[in-house]
Write a structure and sequence with these properties.
Blueprint: H1 38-48, E1 60-63, H2 70-84, E2 88-94, H3 101-111, H4 122-134, E3 137-143, H5 152-160, E4 164-170, H6 181-187, E5 190-193, H7 199-213, H8 221-234, H9 237-253, H10 261-277, H11 281-292, E6 296-297, H12 298-307, H13 314-326, E7 330-336, H14 338-341, E8 343-349
Parallel strand pairs: 1-4, 1-5, 2-3, 3-4
Antiparallel strand pairs: 6-8, 7-8
């Protein structure tokens, strides 16, 4: 008689899971340790330090591509600051979500614990917030600061707060160039750039999250290596987190007690399909031109696009490039071609996610 019981040994039962806590894979999850950003945290702390002597702090503009730890690092510093003292208000505003001066102001009211906001005008509220903060000091973080469309609140904070450190986070290095002159002259910021993680650092960060997100021992080592490789190629640790969650879900769908490469491949195929669907038809048309003309300048690509019958302006063409870059379908790299030719931006398509 053939013993078939072994066929079911590696299957999950109805009440089993390979996940310990999926929240640890969320983009907004705040890890207990922020790996490989110690130097950046020290710079941020230095900008805040004068507030402890009841002096004005230093303002910072923090730049770096998405997924390199800017927001995680800032939130970690704010959490430590709250534990250290009650004399410094901590304010965090995402300017993409709070896209008007009034919404930003309401967030400030919440963070400084001013609750009497009902039926009050903007001017009344800003007066109360300034009065509340000026009794102490404040660190004000404006994340996605390049999305700001209304600088009225920022201008007031720079003028009327006695002791503050204002930190602006942006993915766009050109942000300061386009900033309102009145704000720029008052801000007088220092600059801190977050460079991309190397492959070893990406793996460390993913392993740290895995400790909290999965049951110990359920992920094969080669899966972690592959996810780290994909995340490094994307230049975004958040992609690796998304991939781990998706691969884990594929494993559970197949009732597997182990997360294997086969589950990772299924997750990659789904993400590849979703990624392509996220861009417009116009962007897909531009992507086709890029694939036919790899590693060439943006201007040359635009000429090739026009030759193939493209009807959009250069400005619209450039917006489609940004759309493709944000979807991680292309990469745009600055190339130094020497003294005579100077610097130029070259474009190439990113290989398919499910290519190992």
């Amino acid at each position: 008689m053939v013993d078939c019981m072994g066929l079911f040994e590696n299957m999950l039962q109805g009440n089993e899971t390979i996940f310990a806590d999926t929240i640890a894979l969320d983009f907004d999850y705040q890890p207990k340790i922020v790996l490989h950003r110690e130097a950046q945290q020290r710079r941020i702390v230095e900008s805040i330090k004068p507030l402890f002597q009841r002096r004005n702090g230093k303002n910072l503009i923090i730049s770096g591509q998405p997924g390199v730890g800017k927001t995680v690092c800032l939130k970690h510093v704010l959490d430590e600051l709250k534990q250290e003292t009650d004399d410094i208000h901590c304010v965090y505003i995402n300017c993409w979500k709070k896209d008007s001066a009034f919404k930003m102001l309401l967030q400030m009211c919440e963070d400084v614990e001013y609750a009497w906001v009902h039926n009050k005008s903007y001017d009344e509220l800003i007066g109360k917030v300034i009065e509340t903060i000026n009794k102490k000091s404040a660190v004000i973080v404006l994340d996605e600061a390049d999305k700001l469309t209304d600088l009225k609140l920022v201008y007031t904070l720079l003028d009327d707060l006695f002791r503050k450190t204002i930190i602006m986070i942006t993915n766009n290095k050109e942000f300061l160039v386009n900033l309102d002159t009145r704000v720029k002259s008052r801000l007088m910021p220092e600059f801190l750039e977050f460079n991309p993680y190397n492959k070893s650092q990406v793996k460390d960060i993913l392993n740290e999250r895995i400790k909290y997100a999965f049951i110990p021992g359920v992920i094969e080592d080669k899966v972690v290596e592959a996810v780290a490789e994909k995340s490094f190629e994307a230049g975004d640790v958040r992609f690796g987190l998304k991939l781990l969650r998706s691969a884990g879900e594929e494993a559970e769908n197949l009732a597997s007690k182990k997360l294997k490469l086969e589950h990772l491949k299924l997750a990659l195929e789904k993400l590849e399909t979703l990624r392509t669907k996220e861009v417009s038809e116009e962007a897909e048309e531009v992507l086709g031109v890029i694939k036919e003309n790899e590693r060439t300048s943006i201007l040359n690509l635009f000429e090739k696009y026009k030759e193939k019958g493209g009807e959009k302006s250069y400005r619209t063409f450039h917006r489609r490039l940004k759309e493709l870059e944000e979807a991680n379908l292309i990469s745009i790299k600055e190339i130094n071609k020497g003294f005579e030719d100077g610097r130029t931006n070259e474009v190439e398509s990113v290989r398919k996610l499910d290519e190992f």
